[in-house]
Specification:
It is a single chain. By secondary structure, the chain is mostly helical. The protein has a domain of 50 residues. Helix content is 41%, strand content 0%. It is elongated and about 60 Å long. The termini are far apart.
Length: 104
């Protein structure tokens, strides 16, 4: 398995380590928010959410035996230009059946 890094420099080989590192970054941002906003209800909720996130990451443990990560998703770029209208010439309208039909 090849381990690379993404644009932020995090390892792509260990998703749990990546999640922990990003959670630490988020926790630092929450501290900055607290410094700017003070000890408000919203800030206390954010701090509580951060504690819960770290607890959940700690509870994960190792993956189940035999569990394999899914294959990477292949992204397909959809062009922005209009489709050829002839492609839709024999298609029925979306909704409740074909053109001219009514629901009862």
């Amino acid at each position: 398995m090849t381990v690379g890094t993404d644009a932020s420099g995090f390892s792509q080989g260990d998703p749990l380590s990546t999640a922990r590192a990003r959670a630490r970054e988020l926790a630092e941002s929450v501290q900055q928010i607290e410094a700017a906003y003070g000890n408000t209800l919203g800030v206390r909720r954010l701090r509580s959410d951060m504690h819960r996130l770290f607890e959940c990451l700690d509870e994960l443990g190792p993956p189940l035996p035999g569990h394999h990560a899914p294959a990477p998703i292949t992204r397909v770029r959809v062009p922005g230009e209009p489709y050829d209208e002839s492609m839709w010439s024999d298609a029925e309208s979306e909704g409740l059946g074909g053109l001219g039909r009514f629901s009862r």
